[in-house]
Design brief:
The complex is a heterodimer of chains A (276) and B (286). Chain A is mainly alpha-helical and 276 residues long. Helix content of chain A is 75%, strand content 0%. In chain A, helix 1 packs across helix 12, helix 3 packs across helix 12 and helix 11 (226-232) packs antiparallel against helix 12 (241-261). In chain B, helix 3 packs across helix 10 and helix 10 packs antiparallel against helix 13 (255-283). The longest helix of chain B has 30 residues, at 3-32. The chains are: A mainly alpha (276), B mainly alpha (286). Chains A and B meet through helix 1, helix 4, helix 5, helix 6 and helix 7 of A and helix 1, helix 4, helix 5, helix 6 and helix 8 of B.
């Protein structure tokens, strides 16, 4: 083989490898999707069926029996609500820290991150009792507040890094031109920070949509999210694979599609804007 | 911005997080020193460190700690190594690269409960699962994954979900690697491994640190995957610290003991945090 042929061969081999790995990784999701269109008998057929007559009866049943839309709405409200609340608290704070960095700033940020390591299970009972005391058990309000708190440290850290990247010279120039603090923020900083704020919010929504611990333990029929709905399908008596697949597909589809569309922004959020 | 205004703007986040930390934490510590059992509410009173002793001498204590560390360690190792390998594999132009990327990162967006249920029922089930079918078609006995290798099964499930996260970050980071530098290295006769260790790994140092940090935070308290697959069993083979405390509190109804367990978990998390912040503190541009 000449060098060129050898290179071509290696290229083809790695393309083949990439496709194989990608298909293997995606397979469980594909399998779940496929199973959701089977009858219960087809779902547990041995050997597993790849070709069959698809049916949508599982989807119809899931909606009839469980009120999917209510759970989906709870997921939307709590993940977006938690994100908005956290952003509302974090944006001014992170802005102030980035443009007025003191010798404490780094310590404060790392301390915030350390609250994220507080194991949820260690403080479940106190939070449960507090919610009970204020009549907030199984309410969206409680979840929104908790979601805001569990994501706040990560949001602060990411936003801080974004604000930090805005060159100070631009601000000084605008100040020389006579811009007020308000004008400075709306005209100069926000347009530059907008991308970072959006990335951070997207990441927060993805993490909260899939949050399992608090929603399983603090909600039931009223404020239950899709995570809790799926978990309720796992009880032995309710184990119907095809319906479980349908409910899972319905629970995951919104956020998976959302993730596909926003993957570039998500990476920026996840790496604190440090990886371009 | 004047420093006073800056302080006022920072106050809400600091105060709220302080409350979020201190209120439940002090309640947990208080509960851990009293007799507090949901089924025997009339028996109360200060009992010192008995709850700690009870939790610590529970035969599941050390297995749970060990399982927690094994779980975090192996998932981290698998997702970083596999994530690196796969992102290097897709780091060139080829047919359908966009689709391959989308397929590879998808598991990260699947919720942990769904992820665990799909693996448990449709893949790892010893009778109807796809793995069992594959084994039998090669003439092998099907493996009852979750009963025979519970912790290993959970490691597989969690790694499947989190390797895409590492891929997502590494592949983006690799795109910003200096191509001319690599070409120069190739001309100088540097082979794949030489380039990998001298150029790629240093370039990826910060992304790797970030992946390790974020994953550690999430894996220390893994709960949903265990909750819906093995419930910590058989025995305590797949019980981690988070799940052990959950069992004490919500299945054993003993709030006092569970709170003592919570304090242990907080201590463990803080040991990890100190270690982690030393790594990450350096690589963050704070």
């Amino acid at each position: 083989m000449t060098d060129r042929q050898k290179k071509q061969f290696l290229n083809n081999l790695s393309t083949f490898g990439a496709w194989t790995v990608a298909i293997l990784f995606f397979f469980p999701i594909f399998w779940m999707f496929l199973t959701s269109f089977k009858s219960e008998l087809q779902a547990i057929a041995v050997p597993p069926l790849f070709v069959f007559e698809p049916t949508v009866e599982n989807y119809v049943l899931v909606e009839e029996r469980t009120d999917y839309l209510k759970f989906a709405w709870n997921s939307v409200v709590t993940s977006i609500g938690g994100t908005l609340l956290a952003m509302l608290i974090a944006i001014p704070s992170a802005y102030a820290m980035a443009f007025n960095t003191t010798r404490w700033t780094k310590d404060i940020l790392l301390w915030m991150l350390s609250t994220k390591m507080l194991p949820a299970v260690g403080v479940l009972l106190p939070i449960y009792l507090i919610c009970q005391k204020f009549g907030l058990l199984d309410t969206k309000t409680a979840l929104v507040v908790i979601y805001a708190m569990i994501n706040l440290p990560i949001i602060m850290l990411i936003l801080f890094n974004y604000f930090k990247e805005i060159p100070k010279e631009i601000l000084e120039a605008s100040r020389m031109d006579g811009a007020s603090t308000y004008g400075e923020i709306t005209q100069v900083v926000m347009p530059l920070a907008w991308g970072g704020i959006a990335s951070t919010a997207l990441l927060s929504v993805v993490l909260l949509w899939n949050e399992a611990f608090w929603s399983i333990n603090l909600t039931s029929s009223n404020a239950g999210t899709l995570v809790a709905l799926v978990a309720s399908f796992s009880s032995p008596e309710g184990l119907f694979w095809a319906k479980l697949s349908a409910v899972s597909t319905l629970a995951c589809a919104p956020i998976v599609i959302f993730g596909w569309l926003t993957q570039k922004q998500l990476v920026q959020g996840l790496t604190f804007g440090a990886v371009k | 911005m004047n420093p006073t205004l800056a302080k006022w703007l920072q106050a809400p986040s600091v105060i709220l997080l302080l409350l979020w930390m201190i209120v439940p934490l002090s309640m947990t510590i208080y509960f851990s020193t009293i007799r507090y059992h949901l089924l025997y509410q009339d028996r109360t009173g200060f009992i010192g460190l008995s709850n700690y002793e009870f939790f610590y001498t529970d035969p599941s204590f050390w297995p749970a700690i060990l399982n927690t560390l094994i779980l975090v360690g192996s998932v981290l190792l698998i997702s970083v190594v596999l994530g690196l390998a796969i992102s290097l594999l897709i780091n060139h132009d080829f047919f359908g690269r966009g689709i391959v990327r989308v397929l590879l990162i998808s598991p990260f967006f699947i919720m942990p409960t769904v992820n665990a249920l799909v693996w448990k029922n449709m893949l790892m089930n010893p009778i109807y699962g796809l793995f069992a079918f594959i084994s039998t078609s090669f003439g092998l006995d099907p493996i009852d994954w979750l009963s025979d290798f519970p912790l290993f099964s959970i490691i597989i499930i969690v790694s499947w979900q989190w390797t895409p996260f590492a891929i997502l970050i590494f592949m983006t980071s690799l795109q910003s690697q200096d191509r001319e530098q690599k070409e120069a290295a190739t001309l100088d006769g540097a082979g794949f491994w030489a380039q990998f260790f001298n150029l790629t790994i240093p370039h990826l140092a910060r992304p790797i640190a970030i992946v390790i940090m974020i994953q550690m935070i999430f894996h220390l308290s893994i709960f949903a995957e265990i909750f819906v697959t093995t419930s910590g069993g058989p025995g305590v083979q797949s019980t981690n610290l988070a799940f052990l405390i959950f069992t004490q509190a919500l299945q054993g109804f003993d709030v006092g003991v569970a709170s003592a367990g919570g304090v242990f978990a907080i201590i463990l998390a803080n040991i990890v945090a100190i270690f982690l912040i030393r790594i990450v503190g350096k690589s963050l541009t704070v």
